[in-house]
Amino acid sequence: MTQAAPQPARRPPLPGRSNRNRSLFLVGLVTLLAVLCALSVTVGTREVGWADIWASLAGRLETIGQAAVALRIPRTALALLAGAALGLAGAVMQGVTRNPLADPGILGVNMGASLAVVVGVAWFDMTSANAFIWTAILGAGCTAVFVYTIGSLGRGGATPLKLALAGAATSVAFASMVIAVVLPRGDIAGGVRSWQIGGVGGATFDRILPVLPFLAVGFAISLLSARKLNSLALGDELAAGLGERVAFARASASFGAILLCGATTAVCGPIGFLGLVVPHLCRLLVGVDHRWLLPLSALGGACLLLAADILGRIIARPAELDVGIVTAFLGAPFFIWIVRRQRVREL
Q1: Is 234 part of any domain?
Q2: Biggest CA-to-CA distance, the chain
Q3: Residues 178-195: tens digit of each pLDDT
Q4: What CATH number is associated with residue 95?
Q5: Quick one: which of 20, 25, 54, 126 could link to 120 by a disulfide (CB 3.0–4.6 Å)?
Q6: Cβ neighbours of 227 (radius 10 Å)
Q7: In a domain, 41, yes or no
Q8: Three-state secondary-structure class, residue 42
């Protein structure tokens, strides 16, 4: 009597929401993003009308309102790109580590990129945009490897609590090192302090263009990692049994997130908590399927950073609050709530 050939293991279904509801959330976020983009162009220290907006888009700079719009358009574009990058990077990091506390800021990745840039400026007179970007990506990558290595030591491996503690300690140490590097250099101290807060003010298309290829590659790698992250969510052993190369899946997804974090930090400075808040909110809406979670986290990150930038212009008129300050006020209570939850061992 012949035995039936063994069947390949089937991938267990992931819990989540219906595709119809997910599609509605997707459409809702796209609509909200369009509204926020319009508000970002119109709201500021000077209110502008649609006539000035259309005239500015046509290249006319005849009035103060048209000049204001011309400055806000690249700022809006940078906030959209940076928010999408950080939201997506946070979702990927949480998926790779199965750690609900994972975030480019909390894990020290943004601060590692910042330290690398500051050292390059202070010690090597770095000035070119490409040098900033490559240095920030290198710093982010080295920091991610360092934090994961430290968090993996001891019993239990890389638990969420150990990774969060290792990242927080690394971030504090690197912040102190940034101050130590900058203090003797009064000629760069003002610019570095302003950049360290994290913001999108003063954006120009000349600043944005060099970073676009890095962001494009980071977006592509991260979004294509969705199926791999779904496998990793089932556990390493089950993922390997399903034919997934676990080490390669983690490395490739992490590389995409590091590209996004490093490139964003190079042009905006370190912006914290956005990569923590957005994936959690999106997970509540669409479940844990990364095929939906990743694009929605990118859209949600863009919406949140645009909203934070608009809020920063309104509450401090005629001055402005940088988005790094606004996101810190929004994200810190959210972080405390996550830490106090009972189920923080894994996603």
Answers
A1: yes
A2: 89
A3: 999 998 888 888 888 888
A4: 1.10.3470.10
A5: 126
A6: 14
A7: no
A8: helix
State yes or no: cis peptide before 6, omega within 30 of 0. no
What's the pLDDT band for 321 if we cut at 50, 70, 90? confident
- Those residues with Cβ within 8 angstroms of residue 279's Cβ, 6 or more apart along the chain or in another chain: 87, 90, 91, 94, 293, 297
Domain that holds residue 230: 76-340
Question: Is pLDDT at 226 greater than 60 in this prediction?
Answer: yes
DSSP letters for 147-204? HHHHHHSSTTSS-HHHHHHHHHHHHHHHHHHHHHHHTT-HHHHHHHHHHHH---TT--
The residues, ordered by sequence, that sit 6+ positions from 233 with a Cβ below 8 Å of its Cβ are 14, 95, 98, 288, 290, 347
Taking residues 230-241, report their average pLDDT: 85
Q: Which amino acid is at 327?
A: T
Phi, psi torsion values for 287, nearest 5 degrees: 85, -165
Q: 235 by DSSP, 3-state: which?
A: coil
Residue 300 maps to a domain: yes
Length of the chain: 347
C-alpha span between 189 and 181 (Å, rounded):
9
Per-residue pLDDT reduced to its tens digit, 130-154: 999 999 999 999 999 999 888 888 7
Number of domains in the chain: 1
Single-letter amino acid, residue 332:
A
The residue behind tokens 């993003």 is: 33
How many of the other CB atoms lie within 10 Å of CB of 50? 10
Q: Collapse the DSSP code of 206 into the 3-class scheme (helix H, G, I; strand E, B; otherwise coil) and give the result.
A: helix
Q: Measured in Å, how far apart are the chain's first and last C-alpha atoms?
A: 45
The DSSP bridge partners found for residue 145 are none
Residue type, 335: F
Is residue 16 helix, strand or coil? strand
Distance, CA of 212 to CA of 297 (rounded, Å): 19
Q: What is the CA radius of gyration of the chain?
A: 21
Cα separation, 191 vs 176, whole angstroms: 17
Note whether residue 49 is domain-resident: no
Q: What are residue 16's phi and psi, to 5 degrees?
A: 180, -155
Give which of 215, 204, 192, 194 is closest to 82, Cα–Cα.
215
Q: How far apart are CA 175 and CA 179, in angstroms?
A: 6
